[in-house]
Amino acid sequence: MTFQALRITFLVVASVVIVRSAVAREPDRTRPGPALEARLRGVEAREALTNLATCYGRAQDLLFLTRWREGAPSARSKALPAFRECFTDHVTITATFFGNDAEPFAVTHSLSDWIDLQIGFGAMNQISSTRHLIGNIKVEATRRGGRFTAASVTPHFQAGTMTSAEPSNLLIIGSYRARVVRRGGRFKIDRFFVDAEEIQSVVGLYPFGFAPPATE
């Protein structure tokens, strides 16, 4: 064997040893152990943060529908547990129009205050129900909790206007920002920003009629 052939053989063997050594040092993330457990915790955290955004939408929809069908007292009692699934009791919620953070139209410091604000909004605009269609959710998990942003298109059905000369519904395009903390092993929102970016009044009738509002 020539010297050149020996040199080539040595380089090939050395390369194989180096590659095998690198592969051996790479942690196997598919086997039970710290690496897999950390990965699963990350997946669970991101899923929990994503669910908080849709949790808010379900609570809002329940609040408006119950206010219309059963009245404000029932709306308060049924909506509060639904909101507690997503928020701390003393969450600060800031509501703005058109991205104007400098001049919010409302800031509440408890779930009860936020619910009362929404009940007033629903009564003033004769809203019978809403559908919070939330998407474009981006989450970030941290050691203490996390944060998320999201967007929504939300029809606000104004059944109370159907007997008026100009029946209409509200279509609101909004965005959300949330700071999330861990409480009792669960993720809860403790700071929330709601921005109504676009608002359109859509003229329309209900082809199948509508239920009358509950007596407040």
The level of helicity is: 40-55%
Dominant shape: globular
pLDDT < 50 runs, ≥5 residues = 10-14
Query: By helix and strand content, what is the structural category?
Result: alpha+beta
Give the N-to-C terminal Cα separation. 100 Å
H/E series, N to C?
HHHEEHEEEEE
Compact summary:
Helix content is 40%, strand content 33%.
Give short descriptive properties of this protein.
216 residues, globular, 7-stranded mixed sheet, alpha+beta
Lay out the secondary structure.
Blueprint: H1 3-25, H2 34-70, H3 72-84, E1 87-97, E2 106-108, H4 111-124, E3 129-130, E4 133-141, E5 145-157, E6 168-183, E7 186-203
Parallel strand pairs: 1-7
Antiparallel strand pairs: 1-2, 3-5, 4-5, 5-6, 6-7
Q: Could you characterize the architecture of this molecule?
A:
The protein has 4 helices and 7 strands, in the order αααββαβββββ. The chain is α+β, with helices and mostly antiparallel strands. Strands 1, 2, 3, 4, 5, 6 and 7 form a 7-stranded mixed β-sheet that branches. A hairpin with a 2-residue loop joins strand 6 and strand 7.
